[in-house]
Design brief:
10% strand; 7 strands; Nucleotidyltransferase, domain 5; 5-stranded mixed β-sheet; alpha/beta; 14 helices; elongated
Length: 387
């Protein structure tokens, strides 16, 4: 593995190579500087001899005891007046030298879900969508509200109220919204949680046909879908939001003016107190210039009220993240900054360049994996941050 790090370090640097192959840098530097020959650990004086170990193995693998646990073998032999070794030694011999001990019960093997990290620097790059329940006229009756949100502009690009949660309805909503927003293949990433409609084959095939990348939250982690969750909170904390809806038509008649207000009138704190529509359709710079002129006129009229400093409007964020890596110098222990190859002071444009560099490292690893002469492909392991 160290030899693989040395080869990769010649192309991407020692730091990136150690991160890519999951080798501690301290171990790599120690290997490069320490040339002392390794010494063999002497056998313990009370250890079984080679012949004694072989006798234990023969007993455990015999036809009589091959299906018995070491506890049963030990007790049976002891009752017959024979003692070879302790129970723990039997387990140690089977495990360390022959791999004969394993868990025979079938345990659930949970897959390792990676934290999604999504970046949007303009509208219609990343959408987030989710489904929430609206209480119906009686207990345990619900209507289902589907909402698709652009995470950069916070603009609700599509919504629908239905009687049920169904993959065919989600497919129709996404397809119609993509047509209305003129989405081109390869332009958009759609993020959602792991609900049945979100993971359905109908939606997956539609996104594949449209050339749209799909990502999912980790199970039971609502922070992986923060924009949709925050929008639902704005909806349900609205003073006009009723306790229950009498019919699906009532839910639709409420949502129609609400989303119109949300897109066109609601000044969102996450986008410099502009409306989602202004940001989504490119009026943000015009609004910012207009606000600057108003503040400048107020400053010239009463400069003493501003302590002699020209006020400026709140700037529009350059990017919107889902699970932004930690680029803060003071929090280097998280590893996010090292993973992205950042120093903590770069701009958004540089962060995008770093992601391009990460793709180059992935390509180099693939080339090395195919080169069996220079790389041990069985031992090579890429860290999860590159997948």
């Amino acid at each position: 593995m160290i030899a693989s790090v040395k080869q990769l370090a010649a192309h991407v640097g020692k730091k990136a190579a150690c991160e890519a192959l999951s080798v501690p840098r301290a171990s790599f530097y120690r290997y490069m500087t320490d040339k002392t020959p390794a010494t063999e650990t002497p056998a313990p004086p009370l250890a079984l001899s080679v012949d004694e170990r072989q006798a234990v193995i023969d007993i455990l693998h015999s036809e009589r005891f091959c299906d018995h646990a070491p506890y049963q073998v030990y007790a049976a032999l002891l009752d017959e007046g024979q003692y070879y070794c302790s129970i723990r030694t039997m387990y140690r011999i089977l495990t360390t030298e022959h791999g004969g001990v394993k868990e025979r019960r079938k345990h659930v093997q949970r897959p390792q879900y990676e934290k999604p990290e999504l970046l949007a620097t303009a509208p219609n790059q990343v959408w987030s969508w989710d489904i929430t329940k609206l209480k119906g006229p009686a207990k345990w009756t619900y209507f289902y509200l589907y909402v698709i949100l652009d995470i950069f502009s916070r603009y609700v690009v599509g919504w629908m109220v239905a009687h049920r949660e169904q993959d065919a309805l989600a497919k129709r909503l996404i397809e119609e919204t993509c047509i209305r927003q003129n989405i081109e293949p390869g332009q958009l990433t759609v993020h959602a949680d792991r609900g049945s409609s979100m993971k359905s084959k109908a939606v997956a095939h539609l996104l594949s046909d449209l050339g749209i990348t799909k990502t999912h939250s980790r199970p039971h982690v609502s922070n992986d879908n923060p924009y949709s969750e925050a929008q639902f909170k704005t909806l349900k904390y609205c003073p006009q939001f009723p306790e229950r809806f009498g019919a699906v038509e009532d839910a639709r008649s409420f949502c129609q003016p609400f989303f119109n207000w949300y897109n066109k009138e609601h000044r969102h704190s996450g986008i410099a107190l502009m409306t989602p529509e202004q940001v989504h359709y490119g009026f943000a710079d015009q609004i910012a210039d207009q606000r600057s002129e108003v503040l400048r006129a107020a400053f010239l009229k009463h400069p003493e009220r501003f302590k002699g400093k020209m006020p400026t409007p709140q700037p529009l964020p350059e990017a919107a993240w889902i699970n932004k890596p930690n680029f803060n110098k003071d929090n280097d222990d998280t590893g996010d900054k090292r993973r992205w190859g950042m120093t903590g002071t770069e701009t958004i444009e540089t962060e995008v360049e770093v992601m391009t560099r990460r793709s180059a490292v992935e390509s180099w690893l693939e080339v090395c994996a195919n080169d069996t002469d220079s790389f041990d492909t069985k031992k090579m392991k890429t860290v999860s941050h590159f997948h």
